[in-house]
């Protein structure tokens, strides 16, 4: 090991050189190099780490078409070196900073080179934002100091670069010759870079985004120019409409983050304009819903709708000019989604969350504009109830997996629907009573038939059980 340490830079250079010829051992080699750099940076002198960094970059420049896993390993090594050496100076210069400038040769080059440059920027952003296994025992203060410095000196420029390149790429995307594998990789890498920038842990709170509850992106005040002209917001809606489903879901993923930027980034007037454009973009997706048949697009769009109410007040939404038409389209989309109960059931939570939060906000709305929830929540309630009764029939007749067996999901949805159903509660009660009477009457008719149609009886029993135990009980409880 001591021998290796003394000649580390040359050894790693030799490893990199052989990677292009021996793919089988390439990952092992690069992982070993990465561990050497990560676990004990003092093993290598500053000069050696600079040499390795420069050599990796020059090797990628000479060999832009390496196997993807080889390129990834080199990119990870380069990114780890950048993070570890962030505060180190060489000849009075922070040699590991100015990441865009150091990658300018890649970013301004042909598509293959540009993809490599974007991948490096994306990996550096991830590397600095997260705590790796090798970082776990190190000072959290130092790690946060690195992340804060990167946020303040580099991240905004990287995000702006990603947006500029995306604008250029989306124009080229309209040209059929642009849609080959290389350009597809470029677009995918740019979208991933943009997402990594706006999902950065800006204030060091390590938020659990998986919960999606009251999630806010803490964009720094210095980023205001990127959002005040609303071009960034519109860009990702344009990308969604222009790209193929395999890429458009990434545009929606970015929109989920952009829709969640902290309210205090804007004053009241600016926030109103920003929300108006956001609602307009959502309306344009609902008016052209073809891409929502893709499960990834559908899921991310449901998340986007949920964020609409998480970050904005109902009183602000109703003041948007396009709100009446948008809420009508959202209601139609929700009804259709509930009726297709076998399609992406995990996404329904986000739709119901939107309606639940809007209904819960009704008592606090002071705006004179109508919220129209009394018109559309009964439609949502009816679609939910009738679709669950239909599910009982299909499960029994076709022997499918019973969604009611997922008690956690059922309980969550019923908690949401019990609040939604409280809007126009009389209509909800009338619907439940009507459906229960119809089901009970049909059950009685079947029981009196000789011989008894056992399958039909089982269907009605399933409907009665669903209706009474899960639905009526929940609404009465609330």
TrEMBL record:
SUPFAM superfamilies: ARM repeat. Keywords: Cytoplasm, Nucleus, Protein transport, Transport. This is Exportin-7-A. Belongs to the exportin family. GO terms for biological process: protein export from nucleus. GO terms for cellular component: cytoplasm; nuclear pore. Residues 393-464 form the Exportin-7/Ran-binding protein 17 TPR repeats domain. GO terms for molecular function: nuclear export signal receptor activity. It comes from the Eukaryota. InterPro entries: ARM-like, ARM-type_fold, TPR_XPO7/RBP17, XPO4/7-like. Gene3D superfamilies: Leucine-rich Repeat Variant (1.25.10.10). It is found in: Cytoplasm; Nucleus. Signal peptide: none annotated. The keyword Protein transport applies. Its main location: cytoplasm. It holds the Pfam family TPR_XPO7. It comes from Trichonephila inaurata madagascariensis.
